[in-house]
Fold this sequence. Notes:
Keywords: Membrane, Transmembrane, Transmembrane helix. The chain crosses the membrane at residues 7-28, 40-61, 73-94. The chain has one domain (5-96). It is mainly alpha-helical. Helix content is 84%, strand content 0%. The protein has helices at residues 5-28, 37-60, 64-96.
Amino acid sequence: MEKKSPHILNASSNLLGFSLVIITSLKITKMSHHTYLDEFAGVACLLFACSCFFSFLAIRTKKEKREYTFEGIADYLFLIALFCIVLAVVIVTLKII
């Protein structure tokens, strides 16, 4: 079975940067108190950071059972964080329309 940890690490770190850009732009424009967008992006940041951490641990560990455990945790954290980003995009879309 192909290891997913390097892919999770790459995608999580990229989307972590995207989430931080969302939060920064909301703080600069002083729009963070008008919407829940920064809360969703903040939760996504934390989850993407944890996903990066666990996928890195999965890559670096020597025990195969522990590797699969860390990879599974990273995978689920990534999925939840991705859901938060989708909610943020939906909020932006509904505010624009």
